[in-house]
Amino acid sequence: MRYRWLVCLFLFLATTINYVDRQILALVKPILDEQFRWTNAEYGRVNAAFQGAYALGLLLFGVLVDRVGTKIGYALSIAAWSLSAIGHALVGSVSGFLRARLALGLSEGGNFPSAIKAVALWFPRRERALATALFNSGANVGAVVAPAIVPWIALTWGWRAAFVIAGCAGFAWLALWIPFYDAPGKLPRLTPVERALIAGDAEQRAGDDGPPIGWLTILGHRQAWSFIVGKLLTDPVWWFFLIWLPDFFKKTRGLDIKGSRLYLVSIYAIVTVLSVAGGWLPGALTRRGFTPTRARKTTMLVCALAVVPIIAVTRVGTWSAVVLIGVAGSAHQAWSANLFTTVSDMFPKRAVARLVGVGGMAGSVGGMAFPVVAGTLLDRFAARGNVTAGYAILFLVCGLAYLVAFAVGQLLAPSFDPVPIGEGPKG
């Protein structure tokens, strides 16, 4: 295996751990419901606290990773989020969970700025969508692993044990990352052939070298806003899945933590298998004569259309709902992989982590608002005895979000060609 794909494997494992950590709270919610007696709105606010902190973390780590590099930035992020995950086991109230989620969200903000910058450093442009899709599939694997093992751990050893084990997994990853990873130019064991391949498109990106590019320079390009708006409109959908699917199956299908486990595992198994196609398709279309822009936009439009059928999820049987949600989740992850790749397509490497951080922050702002709106809406419909109608409205919003994001992105970035960018002000 080439070294760059080993790097991708490490990014995949980190993202898997990241998403296991995120899902634990949703999976143990039925147990915590009995212990804390919180409302849907309170649960929504706890998750909104995570999203708000995650938004800030993305912004801060976007700057940090551009300054200190992927190796150190990633290590700091994972050490902090592992401690934060373990910290959940020490709390015993709703306010305690809110503080723990704040710490977890702030520290997890380093994952995607670090991973996307690593892909930009280690992969030529033509391989970045596939590499991003592969490491991003760790989110899906984490979403499969979590419902498969977390309920069992929680019912066997208690819900606190689930958070402790997840935190220990992060420290195990960190012990391997530090001696393994570095930038391609600092690894003497990298073969000349692979080194030449990684640098194969360097002549197209003369602006890659130099100090980090300032905020005003980056945000002064409308292409940057195509990424930012895309994240703002579509990230909340994935957060909705992670946060509310266990509750959806419980409230609309009568399935408890044990009964919903098979359905949740099946959903994310579908997502894991199908989402990788989103990284493969642009390359396949390019080989058929499509320009890189046309190939990526075609892929993103297909993804946007594939989410639309989720509008019917409350009106079909349980297994049909599993398929619809699984396909929509796959489309989201494929969309996300291609959206992330547009950053390294259009902007030099020294701007990548900052822009990914800003875009991720925008997605988290949307993800922060959506749980609060969802919780309030569901409480209102639950009071009327029709929580299913509340979920129908939420899935309608999810089904249309990607088409809106695609249309806005088309206006802001008709092409994904490299953006001429200068030094500009430092941020």
Share of residues in strands: under 5%
- State the name of the first-level CATH class: Mainly Alpha
The termini sit apart by: 39 Å
Supply the CATH architecture. Up-down Bundle
- The CATH H-level superfamily is MFS general substrate transporter like domains
Element-by-element helix/strand order? HHHHHHHHHHHHHHHH
Low-confidence stretches: 423-427
Radius of gyration: 21 Å
Total of helices: 16
Task: Give structural notes.
- With 427 residues, this protein is mostly helical.
- The chain has a single domain (3-199, 206-412), classed as Up-down Bundle (Growth Hormone, Chain: A), CATH 1.20.1250.
- It has 16 helices and no strands.
- The longest helix is centred in the C-terminal third of the chain and has 35 residues, at 349-383.
- Mean pLDDT is 84; it is low at 423-427.
Tell me the layout of helices and strands.
Blueprint: H1 3-36, H2 40-68, H3 70-87, H4 94-108, H5 111-122, H6 125-157, H7 159-180, H8 192-198, H9 215-219, H10 222-253, H11 261-275, H12 277-287, H13 292-307, H14 318-346, H15 349-383, H16 387-412
Helix pairs in contact: 1-5, 1-6, 1-7, 1-10, 2-3, 2-4, 2-5, 2-15, 3-4, 3-5, 3-7, 5-6, 5-15, 6-7, 6-11, 6-12, 6-14, 10-14, 10-15, 10-16, 11-14, 12-13, 13-14, 13-16, 15-16
Characteristics:
disordered C terminus, 427 residues, Growth Hormone, Chain: A, 0% strand, 16 helices
